[in-house]
Write a structure and sequence with these properties.
single chain; 2 strands; about 70% helix; about 0% strand
Amino acid sequence: MSFAGLVRMEAWKMMRRGRSYIGPAGLLAIVLPTAIGLRYGPMGTEVERYVGSSVTMIGSPLNALFIARVVLPPTVFLFLPLFVSIVAGDQISGEAADGTLRSLLSRPVHRLRLLGAKYLVSVLYAVGLTVFLGVSAFAVGYAFFGIGGLVSFGGGIAYFGVAEGMERLALGYALAGAYQICVCSVAFLLSVFMHSSLAPVGVTFALMLVMGAVGEIPYFERLKPFFFTTYGDLFLQAFRVPLDPERLLRGVAALAAWTGAAFGLASIVFSRKDILS
């Protein structure tokens, strides 16, 4: 079977699994209450949570761009990695747990070609889920508030016109997507070692928690640049004034290194692994 055929087969298998739809449903369950709370709740109190209590508001910052910006931090740090690892961590371990991996490899299929197809489908899911978050947040925000300039916060408050605001959001979501691809790669690697579809999810999150905690200990500060979790907040740089291209490139390079290393190790292990189930 050709690589394109394997990708189509793996994509179809993923779409048939109910867990693949947990991510979009979960993201909508975050976006909708956020917009409803800002629309019908006490606006001043709600907005102060995001822009600070020392700011006097004249008019309203609420619009589609603001909603797309507001939902980024909680989803990038927690929910997107969870939903992405659920799918990526199931690619190999799920087949092994179901007993279908051995029969799949009994066909004239090259192992690395099959692994590449599964990995590509996982990466496309991670990217698609990130894009889905941005599009749904923008659409819901537009339906509730219309469109306008972007008020951003964190490390100060900045205002961008509609055109620049869209560009900054696109960059922010692209950087968030790069982090999700890295998380996806780590979960996919763990999936090669395990025979339970849930174990890679748990280990991925345990690894993220350990790296996050160790990186905050002064003694291990020199190790922090080598942890992929250090670059989980890279998307925030998209809203800084001015942009720091050097810092962005360093962060993307580190995530790319982790991504490549994870898939490379997965390829080595899978090509030599005895498939018993």
